[in-house]
Every structure is written in structure tokens, then in C-alpha cells.
Amino acid sequence: MSTYSITIKAFGEYAVLIEWPNKVSEDILKDILIFNQFLEENYLKKENWEHVLAYNSLTLVHRKGAVVFKSLKKQLIDWYANKTIEGEVQRSFWRLPVCYDSSFGIDLEEVSNQLELSVSDLITLHTKSIYTVYGIGFLPGFTYLGGLPSTLETRRRQEPRLKVEKGAVGLAGKQTGIYPQESPGGWNIIGNCPVPLFDAQKDTPCFLSVGDKIQFYAISKAKYDLLKIETEVGVFKLEKGKIDA
After folding, report:
1. Residue 109, SS3?
2. β-strands 213-219, 90-99: how paired?
3. Which residues pair with 16 in a beta bridge?
4. Do 5 and 82 touch, CB atoms closer than 8 A?
5. Tens digit of pLDDT for each residue in 23-37?
6. Strands (E), the chain
7. 3 state SS of 27
8. Secondary structure of residue 113 in the 3-state scheme
9. Do 185 and 161 meet the contact criterion of CB atoms below 8 Å apart?
10. pTM score > 0.85 for this model?
């Protein structure tokens, strides 16, 4: 089982921040997932601790009071050195529909020109790739997806928009992602996903987790309208599978 040089820092009174080497890496993410599961199963149960994973870090927040950092740090170092889990960390694989119609993909033509690709080739590349959820943030349910082909890497917009539609699928740098709700944003918008990524009324507001895999598939505008209705009435079924970490 892999072991990395980690650092552990106090993160206010109630939390600690554990950091792995500062790079985007599937191997590092796997190690974080394994250690996190080990902690959840054996020492830091979810009813008492919130576990926040992102890229190369794991933040542990105590729900019931301040932490004694010095002693917790020593425990974490020992636990990390001796981490082990039964089997593999289970992650989910999701297939999500995206409509790349020009009414949604408002930057699609401009990005295609910048990358010297046809629109159809851009869509093919975007849907062919399988992405990894490396982080969830800036908005509740906003997914930062790694694994974008280098041919689709593009700069953020110089002037962010004040309004990006809910479900907008964007490109920025080496990442792609979906806006879970209407918000300002500076990513290049190439389509829209009709599946809500965040619902505060549900027991699990965001069905995606860090470490999950996502692949997009293209749908027509008519199919988008149909799926939008199906999600609103609760009859749409997500395509979900399992993968081993």
C-alpha cells in the first residue's frame, strides 16, 4: 500500500488539515481515499467527524468540540503508517447526459476556433474521456473534474459572466465541470446537463463523491427537454456503475 510524505496542520480550533504532495495524481487520490475510509471505519466515525476530500488533501472537522491538535497529530501519523482496509475502496461510475446545442454551448464555437477543432470533434473528445472527481466546491455540488484531454485545455474567460445557467458544462484550464446552480462564472460553456447535481432537500444532497468517475454522453435538444421533465417528476434514472479504487 502506497505511503507518501504528508503534513498535518491545525485548521482552526475544530479541524485538522492533512496534505499530500502538491500535484494532481490518481495514485495520491487513491491513497487519500484509502486513508479516509480507514479512519471512518476505525477511529473517526462520521457521526462525530466531517471528512472533506479534495485533490491532495483531507480535512477532518470535529462536530462536537475543539480538537487537541498535538495528540491528534501523533495519532494520525501512527494511523497513516498502519492504514489498511478490507478489499478496495468502492467508487461510483456515472454517465451524465449533456446537450451541446448552440443555445446551451454559448462558447462552443469560440472555443472550437481557439483549439483549431471542429465543433463535432470537440464534442467527441469531451464525451470520449472519463473524468475523475477531484474536488467538490465553490458552489454546493460543483464538481472539479480532472482527466480532460490536453487538446481541450483552454484558458478561463478574461471577463467572467455575472450569470451562468444551472447545469452549464464548462472548460477551464485542465478541467471540466458542471455548474449545479445559477451563479457567476468564468469557465467556457460548451453545453448543459439536465440532471440536478445538488438538492438540499435530499438526505444526500450531492450524489457525486470525490474519487467518482464521470463520462458524458451527447443528447439532442429534444432529448434534453424530455430528461428535464423526467428529472423534475423524479422518474429519470441515472446510469451508475461501480469501479475499484
Report:
1. helix
2. parallel
3. 10, 60
4. no
5. 889 999 999 999 999
6. 7-10, 15-19, 49-54, 57-62, 90-99, 131-136, 143-146, 161-164, 168-172, 175-178, 183-185, 188-192, 213-219, 239-244
7. helix
8. helix
9. yes
10. yes
Grid cell at residue 123: 464534442
Cell of 177: 465541470
Contacts of 203 (CB under 8 A, 6+ apart): none
Question: How many angstroms separate the CA atoms of 67 and 89, rounded?
Answer: 27
Best CA proximity match to 98, nearest among 224, 213, 209: 224
For residues 229 and 194, the answer to whether their CB atoms sit within 8 Å is no
Q: What is the mean pLDDT of the chain?
A: 92
On whether the CB atoms of residues 208 and 240 are closer than 8 A, the answer is: no
Tell me the three cell numbers of residue 84.
489498511
Residue 184's Cα: distance from chain center in Å? 19
83 alpha-carbon distance from chain centroid = 25
